[in-house]
Design brief:
Blueprint: H1 3-48, H2 66-82, H3 87-98
Helix pairs in contact: 2-3
Length: 100
């Protein structure tokens, strides 16, 4: 077999192997950039989220009249139903009002 015939095959293998490595590196770079972009998007979404509702202002420990206590409990219940207060926040505020 003539020697000249083997060289094009060797050159083809060398070029093909180099192209494979370059393509693999490009794919890794693209994946890295996609991961970074996903992390940035997640952080931006967290920053854009509305802040948590502030806790309700502290009420007097013992209202002077029973009707004021009922009014305050109704108001807290409405805030919970509207989604402003979580169940835990509602329970804590109710406990403060009732002094328990």
């Amino acid at each position: 077999m003539p020697l000249g015939r083997r060289r094009p095959l060797l050159r083809g293998a060398l070029v093909g192997g180099t192209a494979y490595a370059a393509g693999r590196r490009a794919a890794q770079t693209q994946q890295h950039e996609a991961d970074q972009q996903a992390a940035i998007d997640q952080l931006q979404a967290q920053q854009a989220a509305p802040p948590a509702a502030p806790p309700p202002p502290p009420a007097a420990a013992q209202p002077s009249a029973g009707s004021a206590l009922l009014d305050e409990l109704k108001r807290l219940g409405e805030l919970r139903d509207q989604g402003v207060l979580t169940d835990e926040e509602f329970a804590a505020a109710k406990a403060r009002l009732l002094g328990t």
